[in-house]
Amino acid sequence: MTVNFRFAIISDPHITLPHTLWNHSNRFHLGEVSIPVLEKALTHLEQSGLDFLLIPGDLTQHGEPDNHRWLQKRLNDLPIPTYVIPGNHDIPTLLPNKISIGVKAFPYYYRQFGYLNPERLYYCQEILPEIYLIGLNSNYFDEEGSLVGYVDKAQLLWLEQTLTLVKDKVVFVMIHHNVIEHLPAQATHEMGKRYIVSNGNILINLLKKYGVKYIFTGHLHVQDVVEKEGIYEITTGSLVSYPHPYRILEMTIDEQGNQELQFKSYPVESVTGWENLAQFSKQWMGDRSYHFMIKLLTSFPLNLPLLEAEKLAPQLRYFWSDIAQGDHIFDFPQFPPFVRSYFQQFSSKNQIDNEGTIIIKK
To answer: 357 vs 6, 55, 77, 249, 258, CA distance in Å?
Structure first.
């Protein structure tokens, strides 16, 4: 019997009610459009015949109780079963403070969206017959109290025990931080390692051992699809930054167990009051790119002198927005050869960041 189902991914919506907006001059997130952009995406998804919706973290601007409550209520009104996990912005502090909730509170806000057991930050649910979703928590507070991307030992032990129970089933893993590198040397680069779990190889080996083929992530705010050792990681850009995308996916499993996962992305290009959102948003990101690019150019492995970096940075104004959009080929022939070669590495490897098909043979 052939199995067919449809689902969607919305990532990093960073819900920001007007009275909670952090209006920093150098912020990349357009928090003021978070609710209208989400509403436009949900209107489309409600009409798309979906079986479920996944949101891999950064649900709120910075863990504010009001923003969590608003989203909890909005998701509760959806006719689509929805599953969430926490991002670093959802539980930015171990204990609650004047701004945000604490770690232990998060599952209690989202008991209907994956957390049947609110005593822990991870779960496994059979979301369709013999289709399982594992929601992991990649937010870890180290000995200094800093939040880093890491899957703790207790969770890894639970994960292996859980995977033995769902072996030979279709399993989706949802986690906020990237597990596979989406950028050159992401796991070790000064600027990239904050977006990836530091023990990703352990997690990959465990998923490979039990035949898991799909990971869905966010955090990086880019559209990208990568593969490592037969495991595909699909990361989805943020609704509050260019190009404001979300995905619709459709999986077909034939009688022999062969799987075909088709996906297509939909950028939100305008909403009421922001009719030129796409153009404005790309410009907004470009306006804030200079210091980001200076840091990239002067960091390892380029290590350019500041004066040289200052000459090149303006030519990289839209570099990050092009990465965020996905499916881009980079070449800066006017750059010195080793700098040109470095940026060429950021080119999309497979040209399926926004639309494509993944086939898994039994």
So the answer is: 14, 21, 31, 9, 13
Confidence of residue 74 (pLDDT cuts 50, 70, 90): very high
Whether the bond between 314 and the residue before it is cis, its omega within 30 degrees of 0, is: no
The answer to whether domain 3-269+352-360 has CATH 3.60.21.10 is yes
Residues 221-278: pLDDT tens digits?
A: 999 999 999 999 999 999 999 999 999 999 999 999 999 999 999 999 999 999 999 9
CA-CA-CA-CA torsion sign (178, 181, 184, 187): positive
What the block records as the tokens of 277 is 């959102």
Strands 131-135 and 224-228, bridge-based pairing: unpaired
pTM: 0.97
Give the residue extent of every domain in the chain. 3-269+352-360, 277-344
> How far is 250 from 86, CA to CA, in rounded Å?
25
